[in-house]
Amino acid sequence: MNDRLEEEVRRGADSLPLFRLDAWNGKLMLGSWQMDGSEGGVLHGNAFATDPRHPVQLLEVITTTHDPVQGVLNRWHGIAEPPRSLTELQSQDSAFQGLGTRQILVSVDGVPAGFELWMGPDYWFAAGRSKGFGVVIEARGRHLEAGPLNLRRVSDVEPLLHARRAAMRELRGEA
User: Fold this and answer.
1) Is CB count within 10 Å lower at the N or C end of the chain?
2) 34-54, pLDDT tens digit by residue?
3) In degrees, to the nearest 5, what angle opens at C-alpha 137 toward C-alphas 46 and 128?
4) Distance CA 34, CA 104 (A)
5) Quick count: other Cβ atoms within 10 Å of Cβ 120?
6) What is the mean pLDDT of the chain?
7) Is the Cβ–Cβ distance between 50 and 130 less than 8 Å?
8) Alpha helices in 54-173 (DSSP H)
């Protein structure tokens, strides 16, 4: 299954550009990837870390062919308590719509773009458009500076794939 995912990423990375924080010096790996090529992400940090003494601190930059605000809503649902009914889901959607936002400037390959920012107690999301794609930034576990941000296109996906595989091996105790 991982081999198939990696082949899909290799095929799709030319048509769906992946972006990373320019000034990030920590771990980078492939984040989310939709098999239809509509969405892919670069994870800044290790999503597979399990040491409770070191809480997971992650940032993912997701490129999507869909509405980036809907992408934020979907991810916000992922950190909210799972709804048990349609009524609860609609209530969560209303709560999300009521969150305050502000504008931040995000530079994507040197081209500035306005993004909408949502701040939470231990997370933030940003969404905007650049180069014909939606871009969602999700940060959890700490408040990295939420603007201005500089993103650059990933030119080679192989290091991202290699890092993901290494993190999975470590999780399974194979490293």
Assistant:
1) N
2) 999 999 999 998 766 655 555
3) 160
4) 27
5) 14
6) 87
7) no
8) 68-79, 86-98, 158-171
